[in-house]
Every structure is written in structure tokens, then in C-alpha cells.
Design a protein that fits this description.
Structural class: alpha+beta
Shape: flat
Radius of gyration: 20 Å
CATH architecture of the largest domain: Orthogonal Bundle
CATH superfamily of the largest domain: Winged helix-like DNA-binding domain superfamily/Winged helix DNA-binding domain
Strand order of the largest sheet: 1-3-2
Bound molecules: zinc ion
Order of helices and strands: HEHHEEEEHEHHH
Number of helices: 7
């Protein structure tokens, strides 16, 4: 009964137990998850929405998670502790977010700091486009050249 969230315990130990519960959950979540995914899994144990958000913030601050901003309400999170840097491929059709290994990113912060004196805090590289499933579904629309879209006055990458 490691995770019994006993109400008779003090608030501090309850917080620790809830944090542990969420930490143990991380390997079972999708690669990029949102707060609702976490909440859905821990609600039955009596963990509140506020606690989920507070714990996610805590884990981000500790460098265990990173927020993957998508220019839409709500963020997705992913575990970064012990992982290599990678770029994100965001499908503009279905919203699928996948990782793309990019070893160059590993060395980038040090290079930027050395050359420009700029200390990189977050490194998020996002490539927007259409995944193979969406391209198979609507090949005509999605293979439209960008120059045609510009004529319509819509810069299609800008969503937010
Ligand atoms: Zn897609
Ligand atoms: Zn990722």
C-alpha cells in the first residue's frame, strides 16, 4: 500500500504520496500527454485537478518533464530526464505530435552560449506539416505548393 492517500496523514506527506503516484504513472502515459491524461488516471485515487497541475509544474521545474507548447489551449508534456534532445513533428491535419531525433540539438545550447553569450533555457524545435496518414487521405490539398497558399493571403502555419 505504498500509495494509500490516507486523509489522516499530514498535508506534506499527502503531497509527497500524490507526487509519487504521478511519477510512477509517467512511464505508462503516451509520449506526449496532457494534464487530462494524468487526471484521468489518478482521479480515482482522490487526486484533484489542482494537484495534478501543481505537480506537473513541479516536475517541469525539476527538469523531469518539459512542456511542449502547441499554440493551442492547454499544453502537452513529455519526460525529458535522461533523454536525448529531439525535434517535434506536428501534423496540422490530425494534431499528431511525434519525436524526431536531432543530435545536433544536444550541442546547440553550448554553441549559442559560447558564440552569443546567450543562455538557452528551453529548446523546442517544431516542424509543422502533414503526417503520412493525412497525406494519404487528402493528397491533393496537402501537396498544394506554399506559393499558391500565399496568394490566398493565408499563411497556413500560423494557427494561434
Ligand atoms: Zn496527421
Ligand atoms: Zn517529444
Amino acid at each position: 500500500m505504498r500509495h494509500s492517500l490516507n486523509k489522516s496523514k499530514g498535508p506534506a506527506s499527502r503531497r509527497t504520496a500524490e507526487r509519487e503516484l504521478i511519477l510512477d504513472l509517467l512511464p505508462h502515459l503516451p509520449g506526449h500527454f496532457n494534464a487530462e491524461d494524468v487526471l484521468g488516471a489518478v482521479k480515482a485515487a482522490g487526486v484533484s485537478r489542482a494537484t495534478v497541475y501543481r505537480t506537473l509544474d513541479f516536475l517541469v521545474a525539476r527538469g523531469i518533464l518539459q512542456r511542449v507548447h502547441l499554440g493551442e489551449p492547454g499544453a502537452r508534456y513529455e519526460v525529458i530526464a535522461g533523454r536525448d534532445q529531439h525535434a517535434h513533428l506536428l501534423c496540422l491535419g490530425c494534431g499528431e505530435l511525434s519525436d524526431y531525433p536531432l543530435p545536433l540539438l544536444q550541442r546547440l545550447p553550448a554553441a549559442v552560449r559560447r558564440r552569443q553569450g546567450f543562455a538557452v533555457e528551453h529548446l523546442l524545435v517544431r516542424l509543422c506539416g502533414y503526417c503520412h496518414k493525412c497525406r494519404a487521405r487528402r493528397p491533393a490539398t496537402f501537396s498544394q505548393p506554399i506559393s499558391t497558399k500565399r496568394k490566398e493571403g493565408a499563411h497556413h502555419v500560423k494557427r494561434s
